Amino acid sequence: MFPQGLPSLATFTDLYELTMAQAYWQEGMTGEATFSFFFRSLPPHRGYLIAAGIEQILEEIEHFHFTEDDLIALRRLHRFREDFLDFLAGIRFSGSVRAVAEGTIVFPQEPLLEVTAPILEAQLIETLVVNRLHVYTLLASKAARVRWAAGPQRLVVDFGARRCHGWEAADMAAYCGWLVGFEGTSNVHAGLRYGIPLYGTMAHSFVSAFPRELDAFRAYARTFPDSTVLLVDTYDTVEGIKHALHVASELQKQGYQLRGIRLDSGDLLSLSQVARQLADAAGFPHLQIFASGGIDEYTIEHLVHHGAPIDAYGVGTKVGVSQDAPCGDCAYKLVNYAGRATLKLSEHKQTLPGPKQVYRFYDTTGRMLYDQIGLADEPAPAGGQPLLHEVMRQGRRLRPAVSLEEARSHCRQQWASLPESHKDLHDPATYDVQVSVRLYQLTKQLTEQLQAELHLCNPEHSPSPRSGKD
């Protein structure tokens, strides 16, 4: 059992990060390293990614350290030298970080973040960096698809808390939804934590706790006469709608308005049409129709296309876990060590060497045209806007944390500049990401050099050893 409470985030690392760290330390390898975090490819049917989690990982890196209790626990593993554990006691992140802004649209091979620090430090934070940026970016990218499908005139609210993979993941989903333009969340913890507007209706259990559906509706309306949204599908949905309209009439006589009804099952298209017709006929054209229940961007696209009179969507499980793309092919790879550019040649996993910069080019209307990945130290191409900026130096952030509202505004601007063809839910256009001439030449040079060295080291191509006989 851990000595006092939970281990710190410094121990949120794969074991091999610690064993490699001891080997680096033992070999005296203190040179500066640069690691790049990027996605190798996009999930199926995706035309872009929304970079998210940048602000969170910067906060965690800045406060990275091993506690005394961490070291006691590591000592009990009997894997590490005592003097190495003493070294870990004093280690803090002392490097620099360059990153894209929270909410930036990114594409494959483009670094979202680059860490430059003594190699041991940069290695130890790998697991944390990948974990944070991976999940936040996937959730934000899924939520952006939902927001686009709904269109600007319909509300979208996060309802995913109960089926997300833990409370922290639920908060991440709420954060990412708000980042890309959702109107709120049902998650009170996330709402209070991030300042996100809170939305809620009622559960089927409330309705079934009363002898009659109408009794339940009246009780709820008495409690919240100014903000009631009634869940109408516990028994018979059409009858539930009629009961809700009956309560709406009673509220109106008291000087209040029923805000809306929620459909949570069945044929949402036909039921929403029935609800709209009944509400309008009863004199309640203002009554909102809220839909939920297994909804994602494809459901919303279908309903919008067929003219469903739905005013708001509550999206839960499928969005909160990014159901159709729960993981992405991302990596945190060494691209430079001690002044020497490095790369990986593994099949389908080859990396681009050296610290990099990404430049974005726009047309005269402000629409994104293409990106270019170049080396960080090469001259900026004319007209290109750099995406990576230094946000941390000598282990400290260079500016206060960006607020979620600022990030949301940036994400909105980014979204407006992305051509519609790349937003398609089924067959998005491929965005043009180019590699600069210098980066291409460096990659080619290092690849040929490594392949030549491997060829020389291959015993099949080496001279046979002499037998010692003439």
In short:
The chain has helices spanning 15-26, 54-62, 68-75, 82-89, 119-124, 126-150, 167-180, 188-194, 204-208, 213-223, 237-253, 268-281, 297-305, 317-320, 404-417, 437-457; strands at residues 32-39, 49-50, 96-99, 105-106, 113-118, 155-158, 184-185, 229-231, 260-263, 288-292, 312-315, 330-337, 340-341, 356-362, 368-375, 385-386, 389-393, 396-397, 433-435. The chain is an alpha/beta fold and 470 residues long. It has 2 domains: 9-139 and 325-454, nicotinate phosphoribosyltransferase; 200-292, Aldolase class I (TIM Barrel, Alpha-Beta Barrel), CATH 3.20.20.
Layout of helices and strands, plus pairs?
Layout: H1 15-26, E1 32-39, E2 49-50, H2 54-62, H3 68-75, H4 82-89, E3 96-99, E4 105-106, E5 113-118, H5 119-124, H6 126-150, E6 155-158, H7 167-180, E7 184-185, H8 188-194, H9 204-208, H10 213-223, E8 229-231, H11 237-253, E9 260-263, H12 268-281, E10 288-292, H13 297-305, E11 312-315, H14 317-320, E12 330-337, E13 340-341, E14 356-362, E15 368-375, E16 385-386, E17 389-393, E18 396-397, H15 404-417, E19 433-435, H16 437-457
Parallel strand pairs: 6-7, 6-11, 8-9, 9-10, 10-11, 15-19
Antiparallel strand pairs: 1-5, 1-12, 2-4, 3-5, 3-17, 12-13, 14-15, 14-16, 17-18
